[in-house]
Design a protein that fits this description.
With 184 residues, this protein is an alpha+beta fold. Helix content is 36%, strand content 14%. The protein contains 6 helices and 4 strands. A 4-stranded mixed sheet has the order 1-3-4-2, with helices on both faces. Helix 1 packs across helix 3 and helix 3 crosses helix 4.
Amino acid sequence: MRTCFHRVALPLLLLVAVAAGASPASAATVCASTDGPTAQASTVALANAALCLVNQERSSRGLKPLKSNRRLAKAAVGHAHDMCARGYFSHDSANGASFVDRIRKAGYVQARAFPSLGEDLAWGSGSLGTPREIVQSWMESPGHRANILNSKFREAGMGVSFGDPGAGEEGVTYALDFGSGGRR
């Protein structure tokens, strides 16, 4: 079994609530912890920085910033941890659940609602694991870029876990879940 670890002294439920409570950023906002060494940052700081950079990308193109949603964050954090703990990298969980299944299980989707949902995943080690490099790699990938710049998406949850899903324990794994509107 793989080891996944956190450099924060917060319980997981508090971690999700804090990450989900981050305010969206505008293009003029300076995002903290975007380039710093990931080994010295908390998962919350990395998640906030990555979401801030995503919102800068959206705002610079005239799109509204994504609002943090605690239920999407719960799904994203759980998936990031699961991928590095079990050593896989996929939108489908090791148990076969899709990202839509995880988002539903987190309680984001209301009964008889059909929101638009999406997910971006990434991992990197060293300088390639910083929020700036992760968001830049998403912006260079047509599918990931389309999710980030999708005007239907209004909410997001970012999950970050120390560890990587394949090559060893050094690295950072990111999961970003998007939604068009669900439960707060």
